[in-house]
Each structure stands twice: as C-alpha cells, then as structure tokens.
Amino acid sequence: MNIIPFFVILPLGCAFLISLFGKRIKNFSDILATLVSIFLFSLSLYSIFLVKGFKILVYKVGGWVPPIGICMVLDGLTSFMLVTVNLVSLLVVIYSLSYIERYTEKFRFFTLFMLMLAGMNGIIVTGDLFNLFVFLEIASIASYALVAFGTEAEELEASFKYAVMGSVASSFILLGIALLYSYTSTLNMADIANTLAQKASGKLLSFISVLFLMGFGLKAALVPFHAWLPDAHPSAPAPISAMLSGVFIKVLGIYALSRILFNIFGPIMPVLNILIVLGILSMVVGGLLAIGQTDIKRLFAYSSISQIGYIFLSLGIATPLAFLAGLFHLFNHSIFKSLLFLNSGAIEYSTGTRDLRKMGGLISKMSLTANTNIIGSMSISGMPPLNGFWSKLLIVLACVQSGHFILAIISVLVSILTLAYYLKVLKGVLFGAENIETPVKRITFQMQFSMAILALICIIGGLVLIPNLSNLFLKPAADVLLLGKGYAKAIFGAVQ
Amino acid sequence: MRSDEKGMSLIVKTITRLTVGLILLYGIYIVLHGHISPGGGFAGGVIIALSFIHLMLAFGKDYALKKLDEAKASILESLGGIMFLSVAILGFIGGSFFLNFFLKKGESFRLFSAGIIPLCNIAISLKVGAGLFLIFWALIVLYKVER
Amino acid sequence: MSIYFLCLVLFCIGLYCVLRKRNLIKIIIGLGIIEYAVNLFFVLVGYRFGGRAPILAKDQAVLNMVDPLPQALVLTAIVIGLAVTALLVAIAIRLYERYGTFDITKIRNLRG
Known about the structure:
The structure holds 3 protein chains of 3 kinds. By secondary structure, chain A is mainly alpha-helical. In chain A, 74% of the residues lie in helices and 2% in strands. Chain A has helices spanning 6-21, 28-50, 76-99, 106-125, 129-147, 153-184, 189-198, 203-220, 229-235, 238-264, 269-291, 296-317, 320-351, 367-380, 387-401, 405-429, 445-460, 467-473, 475-483, 486-495; strands at residues 57-60, 71-74. The mean pLDDT of chain A is 88. Chain B is an all-alpha fold. In chain B, 68% of the residues lie in helices and 0% in strands. In chain B, helix 1 runs antiparallel to helix 2 and helix 2 (41-59) runs parallel beside helix 5 (117-146). The mean pLDDT of chain B is 82. By secondary structure, chain C is mainly α. Helix content of chain C is 65%, strand content 0%. In chain C, helix 1 (2-20) runs antiparallel to helix 2 (24-45) and helix 2 (24-45) packs antiparallel against helix 3 (68-99). The N and C termini of chain C lie far apart (40 Å). The model of chain C has no long low-confidence stretch (mean pLDDT 86).
C-alpha cells in the first residue's frame, strides 16, 4: 500500500475525531494528537528511504491517470519538507500538551492544529495546482483562527489584519491559476510544464510569475509584503508562533513558490534577480527593524523576516551549492526559530511577561530554558559549532562561487546584525539585574522535553552535511530544484 | 401579537410554518439528485441549513434550537466530515484512495448510477448544513454577548 | 475582451475598498468583491459563446458545452470565500465587543 495519501488522511481524520469526541472523553485529544503526529513523523522518515537514489513516486488519486486526475507526488524535495514539517509539529504538539492548559477548550486547539497540519502536508504532497490552492486555504484559515485563539483585543486585531492580507494574497494566487489555466488548459503541474515548454514564452507568463510572487511572497512575508507577520506571529499562543514562524511561512511561501517558479516555469533570469533583490531587502530591513524591539516575540518575528531573506537569496542565486545552502538554512531555521518561540513561551509561562525591559537574571532560575535559549540564539546568529553557522557559511560560499561578492558581504554583515539583536535578548532575559518580583512558575516536563530535543538538533545539525547523510536528506531535495523543467518528464516517466 | 411571544409577526410565522418543511424537503431532493442534475451536496446542504435559519428568524432563537441545538449540529458536522473521509478511505478496497469502488455503476440518467458520489453528497450536505447553521448560531450568540 | 477588462475594474474596486475604507465591515465587503471578481474571471475563462450548460442530456453533443472545470473550481473557491468571510465577520464582531467601534483608525494597538 502506498503511504503518500496518509500524510493528508491522518491529520484530517484526527481533526474530525477530536472535534467529535474531544469534549466528551477526557485526554482524548492529547493522546490522539500525539499518536498521530508520532506516526506522521515516522512515515515521513520512511519516505526518505522511498525516494533514495532519485526516485519519484506518483500516487493517482481515485485511479485517474495524471493529466486528467489529481496526483500526489513524492520526490526528494517533498520528503525533505515533510520531515521538517512533521518533526517540528511533533515537538510542538508535545510542548502544547501542558502549555495550552492556560486556555479553555483545549480540544478546539488540537482540531485547528491538525487541520493546519493537514493543509501543510497537502501542499507538500500534491501535484495539482488547484489542489495546492485548496490546501493552502485550509492551512491559512486554520492559522487565522489559531492566531485569534486567545480572543484578547490584540490577538483579534492581529488576526483580522492577517486574515485580510492573507485572503488578498489568495485572490492573487487564484487569479494566477486562472490565467495559467486559460493559457495551458490544464491544472496538473507536470502537464503545465510540458505545455509551457511547447509554447513560446509570452508576456503573459511574466505577468503570472509576478502574480504568484505577490501572492506567495505575501504568505512568506517578504519585505514589501511583511506588515502582517510581526503582529500575527507574536499574538498567537507560543506553540502556534513556533509552528507559523518555523514551518508555515516556509511551506506556503518558499516551497510553493519554488515549486512553481523552478519546476513549472523553469528558472528565468529576471525572476531570479527579483528573488535576490527581495531576499536582500528582507534580510536588511527585517534585521534593522528587529534591533529596536522590546517585546521578545516581536523581535523573533522580525528576525524570521530577516532569515527568510537568506533563503530567498540563495534560491535566487540558483547554483547547485546555493540550492543546497538555501534548503539547509530552511531546515535549520525551522528548528532554531521554533526553539526560540517555544523558549519565549516558556518564559512567558513562568514570568508572565514578554517585555525585555521587565525581565532579567533568569539564568539562575530557569537553567534549562536559559541554556536552550543560548543555544538557539547562538545558532541563529551563526556561531561555529552549531547548525546555523554551517548553512550561513554555505550561503556565503555560494554567493562567492557565483561571483556575487557584494551579496556575500551583505550576508555576513546581516549575520553580525543578527548576533547583535540576539545578544540584546540574552542580556535582557538571562543576565543582568533580577527584575521579576513574583516567584517564577516551573515549566512542565513536556515543555522541557521539546525544547531539549530541539536544542540537541541545533547542536548536531551540522552533521547533516556529512556526505552520507547529505546524499540521503539534502541532496535529493536540491536536485529536484536543479531539475528545473525536467520535472515534467520525470513525473510522466514515473507514471508509466 | 402577544408580548410573551418572540420572533416576527403572525403573518411571517404562518407562512414559515407552511413553507419550512417544503424548503427542507427541497434541500434533501437537491442532495439526493446531485449526481444527475445541477446541485449536489453543497447547494443542498445550504438549503437545508436555510430552512433551520428560516425557523430561527421567524420564531426566535430558542424555538429553532429546540429542533436542532448546537451540540447536535456540531456532532452532525463532525460526522459529515468523518463520513466523507471514510468513503474516501473505503476506496482502498479497490486499491486507490478516493476510488469509485462500486464497479458496476449502472447506466446514465438513473437515480442509482454514480457509485460513491451520492454518499459523498450526503456527507457534504451534513457537513455544510450543520456548519452553516453553526456559523449563523455563533454570530447570533456573539451579538447577544455584545449587548 | 471588454468582459475581461470589466473583471479587472471590479477587482480594482474591491482593492480600493480594502485599502481605503475605514470600517471593518466595509473591508470585509471589499474582500468579497475581490473574490467575486476573480471567480467571475475564472468562469469567463471557461465560457464559450453560444455554448450550453455542461449537463449531459439525452440529445446533447459534448462539443457545444462550455468548459465545466472552471465552474467546479469556482464553486470550491466560493466555499473557501464563505469560510473566510464567516471567520472575518466573527472576528469583527468580537473586535466591536472589545473596542466599541468598527473604525479601524481607532483600533490601533499594534503597528506593523
């Protein structure tokens, strides 16, 4: 039996079952959500071995052959993204088992969470453009509701802003899909790529690229479209912030955009240059805005914008090394950014505040949180033994290798900027005078467990670059992006 | 109009009493004929939900909730979702997710001729009908809190 | 061609409404206009002049039907639009409860 549809079936069924029984049976939602996410993570690990040796698996939904029916695709990039998403979601579920006790109606949280997970897994595995749009909307609507989960004034306002901008972005994406359908009269991604290869490239294709750049760029919070992110991500409950900043913007923005731009349209020079410019802009503006923040979660959110810029920069350079570096940074960022957001949740849980000026001296009171916070911060600012260093080094090397020396210098400078504002966090939170009068609340074992595992991955993450592991995990993903328009041939080859 | 009665005037109530059953029946008709004529699960589900919303508008919130309260509607909605998913999963007995597993599909223009599509339509109508009713109910409850 | 242009005009009206209006409800209506402009465009993409509705009747050839796929897709998009609108209205009502106003210039705790 093929495993591909289970990435969507399991979280979707889990969501409905939780909403049916979660209220009546105690602890039902906790147990089911944990079991399903453990199972999903092991399935995604198994999927790595399925695609070993550059294989592509195509699943025909309902038995219909791809250009007519919907298909689901499992290739290197897919399994890479699936591992990233399901790893973070597993740890976030374990974390939120105890964290979410602060809110009422815990089962609704897990229902929405599982819907969001189903949407994200669906975006990753689908091979059909409109199906991608539907899953994107499932994930987005669940995230709008999750941002407003606390129903305080700020959360509602952030959620409203996020929902308005998000649905404008979805309209742009739908318009792009409509134009693409009118041009190629098919919706299957591989078939679109085939049809486009036969037609001469016209002006319409550039217009569609711009529409997709706007739509997915807004979902990924690139700089001209970033205004919603610093409101929405801090307002959500901490596990959801970790999920949104860690994997959500990467799946909806980076994965979908790179799949469309590289595998369907084929890399075009002007679009790649736009990606580089937007990436540099995001890196610099996000970093500069982050320095001035005093709310710890807002600072992390601006830092997300800055790090997303790195990934877009390396995608825009589009050499084999750059793809490898960008995807590695994507994985690393999802690990340490979720670690940092979970840390901020633990700090808020214990001290009741998120303001940097009101904290201090926590290193003596919360040793584990302090240590994981130091590891996460050092990793994101690129300190040598940790994983963030290796991916940033690879990005700089890719810039130098392709002759973009100015870009390399800018990335190093932004990395120093990152170090500056994370040192500010460390100084404000961990060291300095003890400002907290109230006794800190001890964080629970589940929260400690997730944070410790994420910190451990931060420390040993550099090992992924060892050739054996890299050939299994990173290289196939980068190869899919390198394949460009050969993707269509590979898919139809796998169907036969 | 007596002061203890909620809802709209007598004319509206009488007309509602006459028409609401027909509306519900029409919704069910649309659902069951969805695979051979325009309509289907979504349109039929909306009409079914509208019949309950119609009751709620004419007779007030409490009367309609006596017919279908929010807990039951919530159960129906989840059941609709699970039913749709299980129909899809049942496709695995034919070898593929979402497979139309009734191999003998009958002939065109007959009522039972479409395999799993009527089952999917019923599931969707449950999900949409209960969901739309719940949305309407939730907005009303929010409005009450605010005043 | 002018039909497609009118869709674009409708889209721009919606965008103006979202960007310029101060009332939360008007913003939601603007989003609805944007969605319907896109949906209308999508249906028109599949339209063929002189075509019939894509329903298989006993004496109808497949050749003169309009393209049914965009209609199915637009139906899905409408359902998604319904969900977004319902969520937005609920959030707007809750916001009114907290702030006592629908005016977006008075609801400004957060700034991008």
